[in-house]
Design goal:
Length: about 450
């Protein structure tokens, strides 16, 4: 190491996953000590083993407090541009019953703790990530946001996880373009302060954020947004003229209003709603829908009403109140393949979840697809299927191929509980009946990653 060029040594030290190792390197040699001062990123996370040692009577006197380690690192080098601190995800499994005291040694969004070190980096820091310890932070309201906004003049990216955040005293942050709040209780029930103080956000991630009543996103430069709402707000409003990619997951809002003329990729996971308003959303090309069975027709009619006919890629699944049981038909919903083609006449790629496939196959049995108009645009189909009666499943597959004349690439994932002989019969029959189709076969099961057993045969 002593003979390596200084820039290379700095690059090696920068790649350390834990900056506590950086402090150890300083004691090894003069070269490493000098090079450590050139490192511009700091990463420090409390592992489960460190946490347990700090709690054990036999070892806790040997462990330097986590907060002390961080403050020493910052005060030693005041030019960090990126800081990432937090507790490992493994500590998320610790419950209140496992903690007997009211300590705050890992409460990382504590105002006084941040005040001890963040002002030293006020002019250099560009990226800040804080993953708090939920057991200690969830019942302590923090004004960390106001301190960060009044201290970090050039901050571009901010990530905060597992905290209770106040917004009083929040200052304007014109340089901030990327904000992530994950599993956070936020005292901004309508998102007014976020819209006002972070006006130049281009990427916003609100994952499992609670405390909302009638939240509204109104950001003119927002391009990418992922929003997973942990409670059931009265309404959600999104007005974002530059929004291109939007993932929304919510439960039973009375109203969803979306005004996004540039939206191209829309992923909507929804458990019922009274009203869905799509304004200026006619440019959606990739659409992913996971909706409750009872609201399926209503949701899809909204997309048809607002002329989303340019959709070329569609992923569709139904959230079922009861699961499909092998050999038993339950909780059917009438929605045929012909209706889908009518709503989205220009799709080239279609992926169907098990609920969607089951509903469409059930509708096919009633004859709803017999007189349907063919589709010439569909080229690729992926489906998660449960074979209840093989003759109906085969007939449904063949009817799709007869109607969709350009369909040449089909991927079928068969549920793992289906009898292997039945699955084998299905596969061989499809191959022999349509040898010109590129068939791909696999296995699916709830909660497990799909497994492909053949590719392009």
């Amino acid at each position: 190491m002593e003979n390596l060029p200084s820039p290379l040594v700095v690059e090696i030290l920068t790649r350390l996953k834990d900056s506590s190792d950086l402090a150890r390197c300083r004691a090894v040699s003069t070269t490493l000590n000098q090079a450590s001062n050139e490192v511009r990123s700091l990463t420090l996370h409390c592992s489960m083993s460190r946490y347990l040692k700090s709690r054990s009577p036999e070892t806790k006197h040997l462990v330097t407090p986590f907060k002390t380690v961080l403050k020493n690192l910052v005060h030693r080098s005041r030019d960090f541009e990126s800081v990432s601190i937090g507790v490992d995800r493994s500590l998320g499994g610790i419950s209140f019953d496992d903690v007997e005291d009211e300590s705050d040694d890992l409460h990382l969004t504590e105002f006084n703790f941040i005040l001890d070190w963040l002002p030293c980096l006020s002019r250099s820091i560009k990226s800040l990530s804080v993953s708090d310890f939920w057991v200690q932070s969830c019942w302590r309201r923090s004004k960390a946001l106001s301190l960060i906004s009044s201290t970090c003049y050039g901050l571009v990216q901010l990530v905060i996880r597992n905290a209770w955040l106040a917004v009083d005293g929040l200052c304007l942050m014109p340089t901030l373009t990327n904000l992530t709040l994950e599993f956070v209780r936020l005292d901004d029930e309508d998102l007014n302060m976020i819209n006002t103080c972070f006006p130049n956000l281009t990427q916003l991630n609100l994952i499992g954020v609670g405390g909302f009543k009638e939240p509204s996103i109104n950001l003119s430069r927002l391009q990418i947004c992922q929003w997973s709402v942990s409670n059931a707000p009265l309404s959600l409003t999104i007005c974002a003229p530059s929004l291109v990619d939007f993932h929304l997951k919510c439960i039973k809002p009375k109203l969803i209003f979306l005004d996004a003329p540039s939206l191209s990729n829309f992923n909507l996971s929804l458990e019922n709603t009274d009203e869905l308003v799509l304004k200026n959303c006619g440019n959606i090309q990739c659409l992913q829908l996971e909706v409750e069975c009872l609201s399926l027709g209503f949701i899809l009619s909204m997309f048809r009403r607002y002329h989303c006919i340019v959709v070329e890629r569609l992923n569709l699944d139904f959230v079922r109140r009861t699961q499909i049981v092998i050999g038993v038909e339950v909780d059917q919903v009438e929605f045929g393949f012909d209706i889908l083609l009518n709503y989205f006449p220009n799709i080239r790629y279609l992926s169907l979840g098990s609920g969607a496939w089951h509903a469409m196959e059930s509708s096919f049995r009633s004859g709803s697809f017999e007189n349907a108009t063919g589709m010439k645009t569909l080229k690729e189909l992926i489906a998660h299927i449960v074979v209840l009666e093989i003759e109906f499943t085969l007939a449904f597959i063949f009817s799709i191929l007869d109607k969709c004349t350009q369909l040449g690439d089909i991927s079928m994932l068969i549920h793992s509980d289906v009898d292997p002989c039945v699955a084998g019969n299905l596969i061989s029959t499809c191959r022999s009946k349509f040898p010109g189709v590129r068939w791909r076969w696999g296995i699916w099961k709830e909660g497990i990653k799909d497994t492909w057993v053949s590719d392009g045969i």
